[in-house]
């Protein structure tokens, strides 16, 4: 039981960042119908920006997290404005190829700017872990969980309790009618892509100090983000959050009781099972974002 408790706590912490990845991706798809292949690179961007602000410039650790998120939102806005907006209304093959090209360019740019050597981000938090009964957690991971939950709650509040969120949900349901009702659909698309990108960058900024930062770190993150969206149902924010925690539990239990080499395989095994028996996802909603 002690070992199980430790695994579940570890899964809870990783699940928060997985949920951020999934929410960011499903938000963009739900409203814009864009398969965002750059999502993993925005995750890597967040980690590199965290390294730049916290390590290179020496800014306060928590200020660096905020700046990394803003940087992710800025890059996301630029991608939507320069690449996606001119192709609005194009077929899905065109936009997919466009986003795959952007993904390749971003990954190679990171390699060119930062080199191929892994970067580490020191944490100002105490090294001695927090011990609660049989469970031991580093203070850095506690911080990751707290910030992740705050960002998830903030996103849910924005979508469901604000005027901007109402406009986003209206655009999701019927973009043409929303435009007739006075919604600036172009601004909603840019805001949506920026918000989704910022959540992906937030996950990278939070996990960068936990692990190391490399140019290819976004590849696996992108696969996991798509897996989470499949689990939760396309366009469902609540489902994406739950799917993130489910994937983390599957990985942690698989690594703890089978082999660490099967950590990623366990999560994708669940995806295969879900696709076989419920292709629309466990929590699919067709009527609204939320």
Key descriptive features of the protein:
2 strands, two-stranded antiparallel sheet, mainly alpha, 290 residues
Describe this structure in words.
With 290 residues, this protein is mostly helical. It has a domain at 20-216. It is 73% helix and 2% strand. The chain has eleven helices and two strands. The protein has helices at 2-32, 39-56, 61-84, 92-114, 139-161, 163-173, 175-180, 185-207, 217-232, 237-257, 263-277, and strands at residues 130-132, 135-137. The chain has a two-stranded antiparallel sheet. Strand 1 (130-132) and strand 2 form a beta hairpin. Helix 1 (2-32) packs antiparallel against helix 10 (237-257) and helix 2 packs antiparallel against helix 3 (61-84). The radius of gyration is 19 Å and the shape is globular.
Order of helices and strands: HHHHEEHHHHHHH
In order across it, which strands form the biggest sheet?
1-2
Question: Helical residue percent?
Answer: over 70%
Oligomer state of the chains in this structure: single chain
Number of strands: 2
| Poorly predicted sequence stretches spanning 5 or more consecutive residues | none
Largest sheet: 2 strands, antiparallel
Based on secondary structure, the structural category is mainly alpha
The rounded Rg comes to 19 Å
What share of the residues does DSSP label as strand, in percent?
under 5%
Average residue pLDDT: 91
Shape: globular
Distance between the termini: 35 Å
Helix count, DSSP H or I runs of 4 or more residues: 11
């Amino acid at each position: 039981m002690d070992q199980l408790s430790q695994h579940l706590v570890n899964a809870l912490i990783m699940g928060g960042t997985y949920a951020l990845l999934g929410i960011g991706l499903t938000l963009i798809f739900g409203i814009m119908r864009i398969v965002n292949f750059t999502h993993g690179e925005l995750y890597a961007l967040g980690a590199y920006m965290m390294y730049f602000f916290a390590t290179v410039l020496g800014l306060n650790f928590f200020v660096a997290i905020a700046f990394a998120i803003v940087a992710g939102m800025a890059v996301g806005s630029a991608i939507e404005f320069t690449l996606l907006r001119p192709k609005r209304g194009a077929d899905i093959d065109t936009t997919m190829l466009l986003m795959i090209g952007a993904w390749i360019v971003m990954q190679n740019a990171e390699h060119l700017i930062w080199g191929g050597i892994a970067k580490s981000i020191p944490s100002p938090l105490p090294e001695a872990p927090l011990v609660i009964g049989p469970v031991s957690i580093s203070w850095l991971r506690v911080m990751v969980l707290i910030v992740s939950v705050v960002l998830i709650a903030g996103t849910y509040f924005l979508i469901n309790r604000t005027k901007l969120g109402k406009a986003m949900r209206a655009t999701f349901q019927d973009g043409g009618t929303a435009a007739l009702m006075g919604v600036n659909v172009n601004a909603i698309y840019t805001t949506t892509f920026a918000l989704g990108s910022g959540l992906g960058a937030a996950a990278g900024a939070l996990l960068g100090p936990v692990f190391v930062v490399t140019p290819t770190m976004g590849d696996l993150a992108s696969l996991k983000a798509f897996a989470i969206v499949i689990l939760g149902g396309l366009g469902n924010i609540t489902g994406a959050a739950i799917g993130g925690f489910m994937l983390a539990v599957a990985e942690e239990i698989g690594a703890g009781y089978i082999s660490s080499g099967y950590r990623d395989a366990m999560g994708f095994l669940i995806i295969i099972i879900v696709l076989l028996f419920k292709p629309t996802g466990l929590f699919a909603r067709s009527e609204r974002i939320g």
